[in-house]
Structures are given as structure tokens and as C-alpha cells.
Amino acid sequence: MKILVPVKRVVDYNVKVRVKADGSGVDIAHVKMSMNPFDEIAVEEAVRLKEAGIASEVVAVSAGVAACQETLRTAMALGADRAILIETAAELQPLAVAKLLRVVCASEAPQIVLCGKQAIDDDANQTGQMLAALMNWPQATFASKVTVAAGEGKATVTREIDGGCETVEVVLPAVITADLRLNEPRYSTLPNIMKAKKKPLAVVTPESLGVDIAPRLNSRHVAEPPQRAAGIRVADVAELVARLKSHGELL
Amino acid sequence: MSILVIAEHDNRVLKPATLNVITAGCEIGGEVHLLVAGSASTAVAEAAAKVDGVARVLHADADHYAEQMPENLAALIVQTVQTVAGAAAYSHVLAAATTAGKNFMPRVAALLDVAQISEIVAVSSPDIFVRLIYAGSAVLTVESKDPIKVVTVRTTAFTAASKNGGTAVIVPLAPAADFGRSRVIGRDLTQSARPELGAAKIIVAGGRGLGSSANFHALLEPLADKLGAALGASRAAVDAGFVANDLQVGQTGKIVAPQLYIAVGISGAIQHLAGMKDSRVIVAINKDPEAPIFQSADYALVGDLFEIVPRLTAAL
Asked: Is pLDDT at A249 greater than 70 in this prediction?
């Protein structure tokens, strides 16, 4: 059974992004880029399924600029077997990425697409669900536990939902999206990083896949969020209670 | 131009989140229709018809909508949108940016071949919306060029529509075919007498400073109960195993905006602030005077939380 893991190259989790003065976007020149943390969790889960003898091959795929090759090498250092880069310098929105992945799914025929629930740059939380819709596959989003019964062609997924959790059973092929607590990704070791450099990485383009990636949303303006006014330091509990009571309806 | 809002419910009651989405729909303008898909869900449709601002309730009732699985819900929404043409055609499909809305709405967008605008916090015009990116570090104003706008709404950014005053007609809707390749086999919802995090007026949240699960409960529960507040937690507290995942407030947890947020022993990582900085009044209690949480707090109390919290509980 093959697992396809889409991964996105994003501004590193620890970088505090700055909004450009002209309001055209955020400044991502010269900042550290990494694999989207939720995608890293997806890679880890796919590799664990391979180590458990359930998956036979893990294929990482990314869409974006040539530097996404680094992200794919990271996925292969974590244990993915090979990689596909859909290379383009054009802006990619979730629907376009889902359409690109649909073409990859058609040729690779994975039983499971395992991806992060959202990317930490655009915070869209769309691509996995969109791909499932385009493939007419079931979906199990926000996964905190994945059990695959390959023989029965089914996966059982515990999902994090408002107020608790839910367990769903989906017939494969299906899309599963990873939430934060699905697993803790391993660190890649130096030997594995060296090995990853020799693993196959194919490069295709949106044009060669015949997919229209024209953006549907037009970014008009990006601004700094409003800042909260500086607060008051209270001396003790009595003063705090008095201050809160001055707000009337609060307490 | 009409706006289709997808109701969130449990077949018995309409979830409050839907009321905020209806307000967002009214701000866009046009007639607001509410789609209720469920099983034995007549009570929900009747409650929906009374909500102020709703012109029509579309009610689909079938066994395969009992769990509101995304595959079935998306197919029904798409069928509904595509059946209505002309002047009454739907220009917008709206749902709450809850875990339910986030699950089925991108599916709707893809089937309609349109983009989704995720988790809006303001409506600038019927085509232009405001949303946050980079965990709230930047505010994006975005324009949709699609004929139908599929939009999820951050509920804390819009007031709730009144549950009374509406006199909408209820129109029965023929169900779409059952997808049949996914099913719910279990649900484990946290039982609590306290209000739900997303709907609470007051939240008492704890961080790593509490030190242990026992301390978290022993100190914060009496305070929360005194205030009628919901309990929340930072990711650090959840990762340390003090409380369950569903209490987590932050970028990767719940986004909340209560009237009063009391942060106890929370340092104030960016990812936590992203989830609570829209609260009306923020109180921070922390022993470290340099803790970043104090920069976002209206009232800062520096000191030992193990002394302060019991005193605060007693003083209220």
C-alpha cells in the first residue's frame, strides 16, 4: 500500500513575521524556511505505518519554488522513499494545490493521502478536504490516532473535534489530515540526511500536469494586527478585584 | 443574491456558533437562508425559523445526516446551491469556523470549483473579507473573484443574532444520495457542568506555572466555579498532561474572545496569544515580571500564583 504525503515549505515556526511597509504582504526574504509542522507529523505517521509493515512505500510531494526540494529532502531524511516536486514560481492557492495533487493521485494511485491539517502561513485548512472532494474519497481530518486495517481496506481515525474527540471509519482510498498530537516527529540523523540526498526526486510542472493554477483570491492588503494598549500593574488581589468590579458587568 | 448559512446542531439544539454566522450573513446583505441537515431534527429546524434575520429554513431530514458527515453534508449543500438559479441564486455559502465547518466547507468549495475564504473576522463588502494569517501576526484583506463565495466565519468576531423574533418558513429539502464510505463509530465528548470554552463569558486558563495536574484542578476549578467560568489551558499545560487537549487555547487549539480572560501561570507564547488576545479584559497572574503575557494584559499581578489564586477565589 502506497501513502502519498504532501508537504509545504513555509516560514519557520519560530520566526516572527513582519508585515511589509507597503501593505503588499509579509516579508519572507531572508527568513528561515522549514517544513510545515503539521506536514512533518504527517510524514512521521506515514513512515511509522511503513515501519509497521502496513505501507509499502511513502512518496512525498510538494508544490512551489525550486527550494521546495530541500523540504522534500527533509521528508526523505525522515523516511519517505522518494519525492515529486511540482515546480512553479507562481502563487499557489489551496484549490490549485488540490487540483495538482489530484493529477498526482491519478498516476500514483495511493491508498492514503496523509497531510497536515493546515499550513502555518496562510492558516487556510483546506487542501486535504478539497483533494478528498475532487477524488470523491472519504476524509478524516484533524487526526490524533490512525489505525489502518489494510486487509479490509479501511482506516479507523480518531479526530479532534470541539468538545472532545470522535472516531470515524473510512473506506480506502481516503485523505487523512494530521493534528498536532498525532505523534512527535523524529529528528533526522546525519546518515539518514546523507541517504536522503541519493533518493529519487522527480520534477514536474503544473503545465506538464495540465492544471490551471490561476489564483481565485486576490490579496488586497496586509496589515499589522491592532496592538493592545499597555495594561496596569496591580499591587495585590484586593486591587485586582476592585479594578474588575469597576467594569460593572464583568463580575 | 441570497446567502446560505449551514446550521451547526446535534439534532436536538441549534449550536450558538450558528447565530454569529447569521450576523455575518446579514452584514454581507441579501436574504439569509439557513440549511438544517440532520436526522429527527425537527426541533432544530423550528428553533432555526425563530432566529432573527433568517428568511427561510431549508430542512433535510434523513438517517444519513444523523452524524453530519462531511461527505454527505457537502453533497447536499452543493445540490442545494446548484438547484437555485436566477435572481434568487446563492452568492455565498457560510458556516462557522468550528471543527465541523472547517471539515466540510473546503469540500463544498472544491465541488463548486471555487476558493474558500477561511475564518473571516470582518466583512468589507460582498466580495471582500478580512482574515488573519500567520497565527494572527498579520491581517489580510482578500477579494474573491468567484461567482459563489464559500466562507467560514470566526464566531468570536461577530455578535450573535437573536434567537427570537424571526418568522422564517421551513421548506423541506430532498436528501442527496448517501456517500456510504465513512461512518462515525464513537464520540467521546467531555462532560462538564462548566460553560463551553467557545461560548463562555469568563475563562480561567492555566499554564505550566501550575506545576501539576493536581495543582491545576485544585487551584483553578474553585476559581472557575465561583465565576461561572470555563476552564482553559496553554499548550504547555496540555503537553505536560495537566488537562485534556480540548481545553487548549491558542493557534492550534481554540480561538476565544470572552469578556474576561484570567491567565494563571501562562508565560504568553505567541501561539497562545493568538487564541485569546481579542478577549475584552485580560488578567495575567505570573511570578515572572518579564513574562510576555503581561504585554497583552489589562491587569497584571506579579507574584506567586499558589498564594494569589486562593486569595482571589476567597475575595470574589
From this structure: no
User: Using an 8 Å Cβ cutoff, are A110 and A4 in contact?
Assistant: yes
Q: What is the 3-state secondary structure (H, E, C) of B186-210?
A: EEEECCCCCCCHHHCCEEEEECHHH
A8-36 burial code (b ≥16 CB/10 A, e <16): bbbbeeeeebebeeeeeebebeeeebbbb
Q: At residue A148, does pLDDT exceed 70?
A: yes
Count of other CB atoms within 10 angstroms of residue B71: 22
- Residues in CB range of B281: below 8 A, 6 or more apart: A244, A247, A250, B259, B260, B261, B298, B299
Which of B89, B88, B118 is CA-nearest to residue B106?
B118
Whole-angstrom Cα distance, residue B282 to residue A228? Answer: 10
Collect all residues of chain B within an 8 Å Cβ-Cβ radius of residue A236.
301
CB proximity under 8 Å: A 193-222 to B: 216-222
What is the model's pTM? 0.92
What residues 275-304 of chain B have any CB closer than 8 A to a CB of chain A? 277, 281-284, 294-302
Q: Per-residue DSSP letters for A111-169?
A: SEEEEES--TTT----HHHHHHHHHT--EEEEEEEEEEEGGGTEEEEEEEETTEEEEEE
Compute CA distances A121 → A212, B29, B47, B137, whole Å: 23, 30, 39, 10
Question: What would the pLDDT profile of B234-291 be if each residue is shown by its tens digit?
Answer: 999 998 999 988 899 987 778 888 999 999 999 998 889 988 988 989 999 999 999 9
Determine the Cα–Cα distance for residues A136 and A44; give it in Å rounded to an integer: 26
> A15 phi and psi, to 5 degrees?
-85, 130
